[in-house]
From TrEMBL:
Keywords: Metal-binding, Mitochondrion, Oxidoreductase, Potassium, Thiamine pyrophosphate, Transit peptide. Its cofactor is thiamine diphosphate. It is found in: Mitochondrion matrix. Belongs to the BCKDHA family. It comes from Anopheles sinensis (Mosquito). This is 2-oxoisovalerate dehydrogenase subunit alpha. It catalyses: N(6)-[(R)-lipoyl]-L-lysyl-[protein] + 3-methyl-2-oxobutanoate + H(+) = N(6)-[(R)-S(8)-2-methylpropanoyldihydrolipoyl]-L-lysyl-[protein] + CO2. It is an enzyme of class 1 (oxidoreductase). InterPro entries: Alpha-ketoacid_DH_E1_comp, DH_E1, THDP-binding. One of its GO terms (biological process) is branched-chain amino acid catabolic process. Residues 88-385 form the Dehydrogenase E1 component domain.
């Protein structure tokens, strides 16, 4: 070998320790191949088997009785904050029940409940800054509740009337709010995940950035190719984004065991070079602590993290689904009682003397009254002006859209007897 090349090869292929060993007559023990910088050389093959890797543990604060198992992990939130957490979960749960029945009555076209996942919404929202951007999937209504989205905002969107912030252009439960930094939900699975990585990268480039991005998705959406792209981009570009997976056990009717073979979704993080944390998604305090820790990490390190909230979807996937066809009623009963997130927080509050049964019953009645009253109002509000379907995509409407609008106006005028124009805002 050309002696002049030897030092260069050592520098390219080995660590400093290996260089010293080689110079002393030893062998190269630690390679520096560009694709695996930290791997060592061995002289016998050994398969890396999934069974050899310890599953990521599930962090929790409260047990099923609402008791804090390690006092150092109690976030020690004040009574007002804990009460807001509880009431926001109850509000979401109550609203879900009524709007689900509203769809069953044919008053709206579609609905998705959040039963069993209330703690993952409220706990994470409480740990974020209102300035952080949220890219939701379609089961994160509690994040909006926490940030101030009102009952009228929810119901007007589901009814697609002229008061809907989305101007009736989306299916029900596809919420969005510019004011609350909640990006409008899209129907296709996982499209929001690479968008969130991109938004986080843009934040990172801003001087003195104090905002992160959180994107929510289910374990089923994690099977989409968009998730891989988002993970890889975020990891390689060091983006301050929290990938928040709600692992609720079922991708519509497909159980987790048929979705993947690895250690859930958090188990994938290491392969992309990302941090991860798995926690009990029915425990609002574990969710709060995990999200708070994640937010601090992504902003301090300018790196992404995968959070995996382990929970159970108590309700049907949507009003188009019948979950009784693929899971037993006995299983549902456990998660709807002993392991329910609202029940756990109620026990916690009782132990601290913060719970008043009468007051909370009155609160539920008040929410029901507000929701039912708003439904009656929302049904009477006209649909948005149909001309608005041509607006808001461009700052200035381009020529081809102007031509389409004129053609539509002419068509509607000529056939106005065939259209329910009285139901639309004029």
């Amino acid at each position: 070998m050309n002696q002049d090349l030897f030092p260069f090869l050592l520098q390219c292929l080995s660590s400093d320790a290996a260089v010293n060993n080689a110079r002393a007559g030893g062998s190269l023990l630690h390679a520096k191949f560009p694709g695996a910088l930290e791997a060592s050389f061995v002289t016998a093959p050994k398969l890396s088997l999934p069974a050899d890797i310890e599953p990521i543990p599930i962090y929790r604060v409260m047990n099923s009785e609402g008791a804090v198992e390690d006092p150092t992990q109690d976030p020690n939130l004040d009574q007002a904050t804990v009460r807001k957490m509880f009431r926001d979960m109850v509000l979401l749960n109550t609203m879900d029940k009524i709007l689900y029945e509203s769809q069953r009555q044919g008053r709206i076209s579609f609905y998705m409940t959040n039963f069993g996942e209330e703690a993952s919404h409220i706990g994470s929202a409480a740990a974020l800054s209102p300035e952080d951007w949220v890219y939701g999937q379609y089961r994160e209504a509690g994040v909006l509740v926490w940030r101030g989205f009102t009952i009228s905002d929810f119901i007007n969107q589901c009814y697609g009337n002229a008061e809907d912030q989305g101007k009736g252009r989306q299916m029900p439960v596809h919420y969005g709010s510019r004011k609350l930094n909640f990006v409008t939900i899209s129907s296709p699975l996982a499209t929001q995940i690479p968008q969130a990585a991109g938004a986080a990268y843009a934040f990172k480039l801003q001087p003195n950035n104090q905002r992160c991005v959180v994107t929510y998705f289910g374990e089923g959406a994690a099977s989409e190719g968009d998730t891989h792209a988002a993970f890889n981009f975020a990891a390689t570009l060091d983006c301050p984004v929290i990938f928040f997976c709600r692992n609720n056990g079922f991708a519509i009717s497909t159980p987790s065991k048929e979705q993947y073979r690895g250690d859930g979704i958090a188990g994938r993080a290491a392969g992309y070079g990302m941090a991860a944390l798995r926690f009990d998604g029915t425990d609002v305090f574990a969710t709060y602590n995990a999200t708070k820790l994640a937010r601090e990490y992504v902003l301090r390190e300018n790196k992404p993290i995968v959070l995996e909230a382990m929970a159970y979807r108590i309700g049907h996937h949507s009003t188009s689904d019948d979950s009784t066809a693929y899971r037993p009623a006995e299983e549902l009963e456990v998660w709807n009682t002993v392991e329910h997130p609202i029940t756990k927080l109620k026990h916690y509050m009782i132990q601290r003397g913060w719970f008043n049964e009468g007051e909370e019953n009155e609160f539920v009645k008040s929410v029901r009254k507000q929701v039912l009253s708003q439904i009656n109002q929302s049904e009477r509000i006209p649909k948005p002006d149909w001309r608005e379907m041509f607006q808001d995509v461009y700052t200035e409407m381009p020529v081809h859209l102007k031509e389409q609008l004129r053609a539509m106006e002419k068509h509607v005028e000529e056939h106005r007897d065939h259209y329910p124009l009285k139901d639309f805002k004029q």
